[in-house]
């Protein structure tokens, strides 16, 4: 699909193989001639239409944007008629090389990243953590070649789609990232990647995008949605025979319980689906108490989880509970309070994972923002570092080379080993953590490993190798 | 009578909205075509609401239900067409389709049926009860959509390929805009015809005084119900268009925030005015887009602006520009 | 064991109902006296919870926080009444809906501006921690029993206030004839501000009490607000008695629906399916009940005025 790059030193034009460089008025004529030809085969398999509109890029020199000065040339193109550009390129390239410890020829094509994330409303905490982690990585790398456009989706799918359209058509970003919620990802990702953009997911991993709808330009830098639940199911086998499981009644909730059951071998004491956004769990807690369960697994993200854990602890039920790391991540622990103490949860990352990259990340995050990072922040940070690592190897304008560079995942992940499977989803270790008190505050500590090099269950459905 | 000020404003609005996407293409800013399409579609949804709210005085706080049902009609039919499986409705099976004309008909029909069901119960009440019961019905559809796994639940439903109209390539944004614009004009024509008809006169009279209308032998309940059904149909049609614009439907189209936004659009533009909803939609989309780009606290300022309009600029944009309504 | 579970669920339903009553009482009082429909009531609930959490975190005392929540919500209520709401009494319901919808946006985003995006911590006071035995052999959370107690006290207090005090007399007069009590020399502007602040304080109290059970975060008022509207519509708008009956009905129906429907469907299908279908139907149940009640009685159970 979108290949690029003819760069004559004056004008950047990306095309999708159907049209060359169009000036605005040429485009205008083109769209009308195409309009008459409605059964055009090229258009039909491209769902969201208008190949030119989505990919047409006016000459950047006429735009007067600040990023003009940052434009150095790609490796395949050495026509540089601007001395100061060269200088900047050199400095920037060496910074990238330094920060990543990559030696050899680093090519720094300016990259425009569009970040669509949730910065307002009840779910804003997650988006803010992803954004802060991402920006921290760029800052630490001293990279000025990557320009980031950030917009708030307000957790609304339509708004996310609108912003994605704007970023692709108007801002002409090369890479999209930032979406927190599966339903927003499902709205944005398929069309973005079909238009030849890269999408790097820093949080959501819906099963459809890992399986049948996987795509070469979609990389998940967090996890497939089921992963952490599967890990808890696996871990529960050690100690428990009769678990009560609950999740909200929506796809991520049913996926969570399916994931848990995929690895859990014991008996189920009960299975309940609660209302989305529910805040009172007295009825469910009463059922748990009466069920004779020896453990409880719950997936209740955000405020729902806070409410459940507080009420559960207050009710003196006494049956141990466990959940995925989302429900006990750093950003909500303070709000749950001591009710979270001792709760086991699964995560692919924790701040005590012993590697240099992670130590540096945790220290820098605390210094920069004055709070402990959450797993969302770690995912944002890894996403930015993945982009930096790929940018050091290939120009983003050369989609094939850049894709290959992304797939190598040649960056120092804060979770230690990190590699992509055939479906561009991580193959990674998933730990079990426990909430402890540390210096008066609540935090997580790794107590075991549920999976080594775990891959998601949908990879086989994906046609990619 | 010479051309009134309001007519002049209406013509100007129509031309601005029509010119916007073409201008955007000339300037090489194709994204604004999408924005203009959004304005036309939200305007269409609000024209539907304006019929109930502006003419009939029925403050429906549940129009998102019709908007969403239209959207789901498009999404469900397209997904069945894509998967090649017919849609089993119990009594008969409906083949999936990607033909917009069919999708629109189904959306309008579904919207009308839902409006009839909701209207029959809701119109027995009035005032605040009516506001709240329409809200409650919309919430019911919202929760239903969230917990109905067959069509994606809260994750929503993607439309892989935008539905088609014979002879027009809807994949090209400007074409799709023109399709939406044409439907908007049609709906406005219907609105104008209804407003000028005997039915419209009775509807407006029943808004002002139900008893008096009843006393001359017209049943306000039936008039209100018919208006509510037509209103629901128009809004459902816009929902189908909106789904195709975004290539995506989700329960958030059914949420009470959506109902609130539709009311905001009508009031921003001018309640009961022919082009009020369109003016409101244009203003709302610009506001959301410009402020959203400036600050992540844009909802705060949207709230302030809205408050200012309600408190100090009654009559909305069209009312502000055109002066008082001739009859009201 | 089933009996014990059943008793516990009934208590849960009552407790949810009482909490809804605290919200609905203010809402219906404001509608009854001023004829105003206030969507921003949920924001006042949020203000109460945030005030309580902030003060409790600073002083270490839940009780000071509770006092602060009453004060903060009443103050916020009085301020918006004087600045905004006052101009809406003579307007139609459409303008009221819109203006108060705008207030929701302002309050939500303003709160996030002040307190950040992360949820705050608020726990129940040590005095009310723990559980007590209930008939049937199970145990019930003391704090939830206390909430039921507060709800009963507020219901009795409101009844006494309205039927026995001078303020109550004016409120009743204001409900029946607005012009007349103005003509009799009652300062109607102050009366309205006081009533609005009283309703706001009740919402703030509910927010603080519930904040200790749930998560104190932006947007927490919206789901409760919609339930509270369902309550007053079922009960009859403007009627405190209706609000009480409606709240208990909604609380019980919602809790029992969530508890019993999946079990009912469990007789017909496998547990996982039953959980999904039952859960889906349970989330719509109160709206169905509301539709049925309004079908039979379009003005609600205890209509005070139309």
From TrEMBL, chain A:
Pfam family, one: Peripla_BP_6
Keywords of this entry: Amino-acid transport, Signal, Transport
Gene Ontology biological-process annotations: amino acid transport
Presence of keyword Ribosomal protein: no
Stretches assigned to the Leucine-binding protein domain: 110-437
Similarity comment: Belongs to the leucine-binding protein family.
Name under which the protein is recorded: Branched-chain amino acid transport system substrate-binding protein
Organism of derivation: Mesorhizobium tianshanense
TrEMBL record, chain B:
Subcellular location: Cell membrane
One of the record's GO cellular component terms: plasma membrane
Keyword line: Cell membrane, Membrane, Transmembrane, Transmembrane helix
Molecular function GO labels: branched-chain amino acid transmembrane transporter activity
Signal peptide interval: none
Membrane topology note: Multi-pass membrane protein
Protein name: Branched-chain amino acid transport system permease protein
Organism for this UniProt entry: Mesorhizobium tianshanense
UniProtKB/TrEMBL annotation, chain C:
Subcellular location: Cell membrane
GO BP field: amino acid transport
Keywords associated with the record: Amino-acid transport, Cell membrane, Membrane, Transmembrane, Transmembrane helix, Transport
Highest rank taxon of the organism: Bacteria
Pfam families noted in UniProt: BPD_transp_2 (PF02653)
Membrane topology listed for this record: Multi-pass membrane protein
Cytoplasm keyword on record: no
GO cellular component: plasma membrane
Transmembrane domains' residue ranges: 16-37, 44-64, 70-89, 101-122, 142-162, 190-213, 225-253, 274-296
Single GO MF annotation: transmembrane transporter activity
Protein family membership: Belongs to the binding-protein-dependent transport system permease family. LivHM subfamily.
Annotated protein name in UniProt: Branched-chain amino acid transport system permease protein
Species annotation: Mesorhizobium tianshanense
């Amino acid at each position: 699909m979108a290949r690029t790059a003819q760069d004559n030193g004056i004008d950047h034009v990306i095309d999708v193989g159907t049209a060359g460089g169009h000036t605005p008025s040429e485009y205008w004529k083109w769209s009308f001639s195409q309009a008459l030809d409605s059964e055009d085969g090229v258009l039909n398999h491209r769902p969201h239409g208008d190949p030119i509109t989505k990919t047409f890029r006016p000459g950047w020199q006429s735009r007067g944007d600040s990023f003009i000065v940052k434009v150095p040339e790609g490796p395949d193109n050495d026509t540089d008629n601007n001395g100061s550009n060269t200088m900047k390129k050199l400095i920037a390239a060496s910074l990238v090389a330094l920060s990543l410890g990559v030696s050899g020829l680093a090519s720094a094509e300016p990259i425009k990243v569009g970040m669509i994330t949730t910065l307002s409303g009840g779910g804003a905490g997650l988006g803010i953590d992803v954004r802060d982690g991402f920006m921290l990585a760029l800052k630490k790398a001293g990279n000025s070649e990557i320009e980031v456009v950030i917009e708030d989706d307000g957790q609304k799918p339509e708004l996310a789609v609108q912003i994605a359209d704007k970023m692709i058509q108007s801002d002409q970003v090369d890479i999209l990232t930032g979406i927190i919620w599966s339903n927003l990802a499902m709205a944005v990702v398929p069309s973005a990647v079909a238009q030849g953009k890269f999408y790097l997911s820093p949080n959501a991993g819906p099963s459809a995008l890992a399986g049948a709808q996987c795509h070469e330009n979609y990389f998940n830098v967090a996890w497939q949605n089921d992963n952490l639940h599967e890990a808890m199911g696996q871990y529960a086998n050690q100690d428990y025979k009769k678990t009560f499981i609950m999740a909200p009644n929506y796809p991520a909730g049913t996926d969570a319980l399916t994931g848990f059951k995929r690895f859990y071998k014991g008996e189920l004491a009960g299975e309940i689906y609660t209302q989305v956004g529910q805040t009172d769990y007295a009825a469910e807690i009463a059922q748990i108490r009466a069920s004779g369960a020896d453990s409880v697994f719950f997936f209740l993200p955000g405020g729902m989880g806070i409410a459940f854990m507080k009420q559960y602890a207050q009710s003196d039920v006494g049956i141990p509970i466990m959940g995925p790391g989302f429900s006990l991540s750093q950003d909500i622990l303070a709000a749950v309070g001591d009710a979270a103490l001792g709760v086991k949860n699964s995560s692919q990352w924790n701040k005590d994972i012993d590697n240099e990259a992670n130590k540096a990340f945790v220290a820098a995050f605390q210094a920069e923002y004055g709070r402990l990072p959450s797993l969302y922040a770690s995912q944002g940070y890894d996403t930015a570092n993945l982009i930096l690592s790929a940018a050091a190897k290939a120009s983003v304008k050369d989609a094939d080379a850049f894709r290959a560079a992304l797939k190598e995942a040649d960056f120092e992940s804060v979770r230690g080993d990190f590699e992509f499977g055939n479906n561009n989803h991580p193959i990674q270790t998933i730990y079990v953590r426990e909430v402890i008190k540390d210096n008066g505050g609540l935090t997580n500590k790794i107590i075991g490993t549920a999976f080594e090099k775990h891959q998601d269950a949908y990879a086989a459905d994906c046609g990619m190798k | 009578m010479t051309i009134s000020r309001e007519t002049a404003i209406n013509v100007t609005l129509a031309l601005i909205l029509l010119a916007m996407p073409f201008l955007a293409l000339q300037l090489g800013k194709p994204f604004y075509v999408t924005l203009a399409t959004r304005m036309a579609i939200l305007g269409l949804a609000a024209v539907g609401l304006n019929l109930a709210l502006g003419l009939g005085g029925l403050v429906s706080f549940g129009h998102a239900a019709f908007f969403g049902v239209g959207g789901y009609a498009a999404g469900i039919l397209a997904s069945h067409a894509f998967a090649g499986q017919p849609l089993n409705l119990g009594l008969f099976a409906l083949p999936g389709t990607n033909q917009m004309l069919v999708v629109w008909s189904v959306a309008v029909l579904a919207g009308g049926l839902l409006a009839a069901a909701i209207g029959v119960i809701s119109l027995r009440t009035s005032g605040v009860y009516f506001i709240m019961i329409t809200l409650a019905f919309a919430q019911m559809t919202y929760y239903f959509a969230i917990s109905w796994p067959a069509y994606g639940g809260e994750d929503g439903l993607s439309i892989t390929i935008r539905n088609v109209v014979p002879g027009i390539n809807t994949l090209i944004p400007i074409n799709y805009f023109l399709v939406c614009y044409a439907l908007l004009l049609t709906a406005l024509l219907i609105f104008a015809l209804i407003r000028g008809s005997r039915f419209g006169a009775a509807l407006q009279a029943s808004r002002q005084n139900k008893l008096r209308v009843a006393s001359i032998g017209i049943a306000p309940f039936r008039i209100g119900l018919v208006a509510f059904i037509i209103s629901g149909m128009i809004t459902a049609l816009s929902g189908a268009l909106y789904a195709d614009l975004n290539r995506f439907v989700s329960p958030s189209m059914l949420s009470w925030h959506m109902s609130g936004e539709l009311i905001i659009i009508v009031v921003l533009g001018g309640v009961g005015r022919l082009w009020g909803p369109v003016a409101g939609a244009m203003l709302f989309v610009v506001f959301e887009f410009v402020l959203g780009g400036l600050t992540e606290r844009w909802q705060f300022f949207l709230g302030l602006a809205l408050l200012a309009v309600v408190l100090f600029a009654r009559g909305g944009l069209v009312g502000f520009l055109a002066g008082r309504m001739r009859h009201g | 064991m089933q009996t014990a579970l059943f008793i516990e669920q009934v208590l849960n339903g009552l407790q949810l109902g009482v909490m809804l009553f605290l919200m609905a009482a203010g809402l219906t009082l404001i509608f009854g006296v001023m004829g105003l429909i206030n969507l921003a009531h949920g924001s006042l609930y949020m203000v109460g919870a945030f005030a309580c959490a902030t003060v409790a975190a600073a002083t270490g005392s839940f009780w000071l926080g509770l006092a602060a929540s009453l004060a903060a919500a009443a103050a916020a209520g009085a301020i918006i009444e004087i600045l905004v709401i006052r101009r809406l009494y003579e307007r139609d319901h459409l303008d009221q809906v819109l203006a108060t919808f705008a207030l929701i946006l302002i309050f939500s985003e303003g709160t996030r501006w002040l307190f950040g995006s992360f949820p705050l911590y608020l726990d129940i006071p040590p005095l009310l921690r723990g559980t007590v035995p209930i008939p049937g052999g199970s145990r019930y959370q003391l704090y939830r029993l206390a909430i039921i107690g507060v709800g009963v006290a507020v219901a009795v207090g409101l009844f006494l206030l309205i039927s026995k005090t001078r303020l109550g007399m004016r409120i009743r007069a204001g409900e029946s004839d607005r012009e007349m009590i103005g003509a009799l020399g009652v300062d109607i502007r102050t009366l309205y501000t006081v009533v609005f602040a009283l309703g706001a304080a009740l919402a703030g109290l509910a927010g603080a009490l519930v904040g200790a059970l749930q998560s104190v975060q932006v947007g927490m008022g919206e789901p409760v607000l919609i339930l509270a509207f369902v309550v007053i519509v079922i009960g009859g708008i403007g009627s405190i008695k209706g609000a009480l009956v409606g709240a208990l009905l909604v609380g019980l129906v919602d809790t029992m629906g969530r508890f019993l429907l999946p079990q009912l469907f469990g007789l017909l299908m496998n547990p996982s399916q039953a959980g999904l279908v039952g859960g889906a139907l349970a989330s719509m149940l109160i709206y169905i009940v509301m539709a049925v009640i309004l079908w039979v009685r379009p003005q609600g159970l205890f209509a005070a005025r139309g």
